[in-house]
Structure formats: structure tokens, C-alpha cells
Amino acid sequence: MIRRPPAPPRVILSRSEESSPPERQTGSETTPNALAGDEIPLMARVLSVVDSFDAMTSDRPYRAALPVAEAVRRLRVAVGTEWDPEIVSVFVETVDSVVRSANMATVGDERR
């Protein structure tokens, strides 16, 4: 089975009703539309967090993937400047839940 790689965030956003290029949470003048906070479309804010986490936790030719805990720490450090605080909060809760579930499944599998 051939898997297609996921589409880049810009492609996903271009297919979305909320099409917007990546923006910093603070609305830096260096971002495409200088949008800030809630002016940035929800899908763009979500994809910014998810794409950044994926980039941090994936191997790159120039560095190894970061551990999940370090990627979460980096997201938290830049909350409010780089990423939406509410989106990061929900995302981190979800990641924590998935990690706990995976750890429980691993422990349960070892008993068999």
C-alpha cells in the first residue's frame, strides 16, 4: 500500500473556508497579513500548533526528533507569542492523554 505524505499546512488551508497563511499569535509585521490573536482563522491556529509539533518530533536531516516532552515544553514556552494559548492547552491535554493511553497499552501488552 502506498501512503501519500500529508499535505503541507498551506495546501490544507487553501482547501479550507478559513484560508490564511501562517501568522504569529502576536501579529508580527513580518507575517503575511499582520493578523493577531482571534483575527487569525481557527484552522490556521490549529495547524500552526500541529505542524510545529510534528516538525519538532520528526527526524530531520540536520537533527534527530525531539522527545514528546521537550516538544510540549517548547510549545508552552512560546504560548501567546508563537501559538494560541487555548489551542496549545487543548493540544497538550490531548497529547498527554494519548501518551498515557499508549503507556497503559504497553504495560498491558507486557503482561500477556
Structure in words:
This protein is mainly α and 112 residues long. The chain is built from 4 helices and no strands. Helix 2 packs across helix 3. It is globular, with a radius of gyration of 16 Å. The model has no long low-confidence stretch (mean pLDDT 78).
Topology:
Blueprint: H1 9-15, H2 42-56, H3 68-77, H4 85-110
Spell out the CATH superfamily. Hypothetical protein af1432
Domains counted in the coordinates: how many?
1
Query: N-to-C SSE series?
Result: HHHH
Major beta-sheet overview:
none
Q: Which consecutive residue ranges, at least 5 long each, have pLDDT under 50? A: none
Strand segment tally: 0
Shape: globular
Strand content: under 5%
The Cα radius of gyration reads 16 Å
Number of DSSP helices?
4
> At the third CATH level, what is the topology name?
Hypothetical protein af1432
Class derived from helix and strand content: mainly alpha
How helix-rich are the residues, as a percent range? 40-55%
CATH class: Mainly Alpha
Q: What would the average pLDDT be, to the nearest integer? A: 78
Question: Mind telling me which CATH architecture this is?
Answer: Orthogonal Bundle
Task: Provide key terms for this protein.
single chain, Hypothetical protein af1432, 112 residues, 52% helix, mainly alpha
Quick description:
With 112 residues, this protein is mainly α. It has a single domain, classed as Hypothetical protein af1432, CATH 1.10.3210. It contains 4 helices and no strands.
